Structures are given as structure tokens and as C-alpha cells.
Amino acid sequence: MAPPQSGIFVPAGTSPREASMPPADWSPLTASARPNAWSSSSTASTRPATSGPNWPRRLVRAGYKVARFEYPNDQRIRTSAALLLDHLRAAHGQGLDEIAIVAHSMGGLVFFDAMTREDGYAGDVVTPEGLPRITRLVAVGTPWNGSSWAQLQAVGEMHEQVTRVLGDASGDIRPMLHYRRDGSGQAGDDLLPTSAFITDIRARAWPEHLPLTIIAGRITNPDPATYESLAESTILRELLGPDDLEAFIADLRAASEDLGDGVVSLDSAFARETDDKHVFAVNHRALLHDSPIDFLTGRAEAGPPAIPIILERLELDAARRTPSDPPQQDD
Predict the structure, then answer these.
(1) Which of 244, 259, 274 is the last residue in one of the domains?
(2) In this model, does residue 174 exceed pLDDT 90?
(3) How many CA atoms lie within 13 A of 84 on its CB side?
(4) Among 2, 264, 270, 300, who pairs with 172 as Cys (CB 3.0-4.6 Å)?
């Protein structure tokens, strides 16, 4: 039977192998499987049927328990945040006291809304009433100032439902029909840079005592020599004239900066204040997920570039709280 459309899910077992299974093989959270590292992402489930996301396996191998928040990712972001709060309250009632968050893309906005809205954490992530404490947010490719590519959200949603069906050994195609119930593009509207939602959260203060790590991608690394060769091009200078050629090169520079990871610009990904910012020469998805070509070429063993940063920050936070033995490295 296919898993519910939304909720908090954990690997079916405690081994790294089980943490790398497709989303259909994960189980609803129970009191006996409380996590200490979470993900919230509209793309956390979009994996080929042959494998699950690679990063949970690496966190489990390092000694952490992981969970994933599933939600209809084409509904209003505020609606998703309200759903998240309902599940967090239920999880706290089961004994979950503390979590760290790894949020990819829109998932960062979902958690931020939950952490700052008055009927949620209201900015208090240290001593919240009826909710687990939050010790850190790692935002991977989160569009804090929105994204002009937001209207492609529906395409990604359809892909997500297809991969869920392919990853479900039961052959149940009913989850595919969730695509027609996952909103009407409201999340895409919310993600537009000029939306009321983005305008609202941009004005909200960051929760006190919550460390923020930002990881972003940039799929272009312009070589200064490229711009120099354009500036020295006799043909372009004759076609455009000196002033227009200079403006053309300036536009190219701006475009390469704004492109970011192909979905979220660097300006948007880095919009929140923190000294803990990192940028890698990969696209939006590759920040946190291996691609099929990585498995073919052997690059999957190195893992996505966000993984080492995530592990370092979780270990740092654990060391600051209480010294403990190193996590087990068993497979």
C-alpha cells in the first residue's frame, strides 16, 4: 500500500542501507524512531526508483537518526507550514524534544514560516511550547527572496509523483493522482520574488539563538579571460560600438551571477544574514542529491557537496552541548 501523501517519515530500519531506500520504503514516524536530523524539501523524494536520496544514508552512517517531512508541495507555503506544525506537535507528544533541520529549496521557507509565525514557534526555537527545540537550520538552495523559475513548480511536482509510483513495489498508481490534488500552483505563486508571501517573510526577524548555514550552487564560473576576449573582439566592437559592447559585457556578468544554481540566484540564496555561507559549482539538485551519472562515473562515493558541511555543523553543535563518544561508523 502506498504511504500517505503527507507526514513525517523515517527509514524502515536503522542501517545506512535502509536510509538510502526510495521514499515509498520509508515509514511514518513513531515514538520508537525519533530523529535528530530532519529534512524538509519538495525535492527530497524525487529520486529514481533504483535508489533513494544519498544524503540520509551518510547521516545515519555518522550516527544520526533522520526523518523527512512530506507535504503537497504545490499548495500555499503557509498551508504547508501549518501542516508541518501539526506534525511537529504530534511528534513532540511522542517524545521528540530536539531536532536540526536540513532544508532544500522551498523546504527552507516552509520551516522558516513555521518558526516565525505567531501560531507556530513565534520566533522561539529554544523554549517552544508543545514543539521540539530546533538547534540549527541548514538551508540548501533556499530562495529567500523568491525565484523567477517558480512557475515550473508544477513540472517538478508531476515528476515527484511519477518517481513515487515507480518506487512503490506494490504497483499502486493512486499516488499519481495526488498531483491533481496538490494545489493549483499556489506554491509557485508564493515563490515569485514580488509575491505577498516573499514580501512578508523578508520582513521577519531571524529566530534568536538559531544558527544558520547557507549552501548555494552556481552552475557558471566565468573565466575573466572570456570577458577580456569579448572586449577585444573587433567584430563585436564594430557591430555594437564601444559603449554598447561594454554594456553587453556588463549584462553577461550580471546574468551569470543571477543564474545561480539554475533555479535560485546567489542573491536570493544568500539573502539571509549569516557568516556561514558556502557556494559550489553545481546545479540546484546536485547540491544535495547524486545524479544517475554520478553512480556510473563513481563520483557518488564522494557525495554531494552539501553533505560534509552538514555533518561538520551537526558535529559542532553536538560537541558544544555535551561531549560524547564519536558516532559509530557501521554500515
Answers:
(1) 259
(2) no
(3) 36
(4) 2
pTM for this prediction:
0.74
The conformation of residue 46, written as its DSSP 8-state character, comes to -
Number of domains in the chain: 2
Residues 23 and 77 in one domain: yes
The CB density around residue 93, as the number of other CB atoms within 10 Å, is: 10
Domain residue limits at 279 = 7-218+264-321
Residue 183, all three cell numbers: 494545489
Same domain, 245 and 284: no
Per-residue cell: 123 = 520566533
What is the β-pairing status of strands 7-10 and 98-104? Answer: unpaired
Alpha carbons 120 and 77: distance in angstroms, whole number: 14
- Residue that is last in its domain, among 228, 259, 290: 259
Q: 24 in a domain, yes or no?
A: yes
**Pair type for strands 7-10 and 27-28:** antiparallel
Sheet holding 27-28, edge to edge: 27-28, 7-10, 66-70, 37-41, 98-104, 133-140, 212-217, 277-280
Domain match, 150 and 243 both:
no
Average pLDDT of every residue of the chain: 77
Of the chain, the end-to-end C-alpha distance in Å amounts to 28
Tell which residue, 154, 164, 107, has the closest CA to residue 306.
107
Q: How confident is the model at residue 33 (pLDDT cuts 50, 70, 90)?
A: low
pLDDT at 254: 66
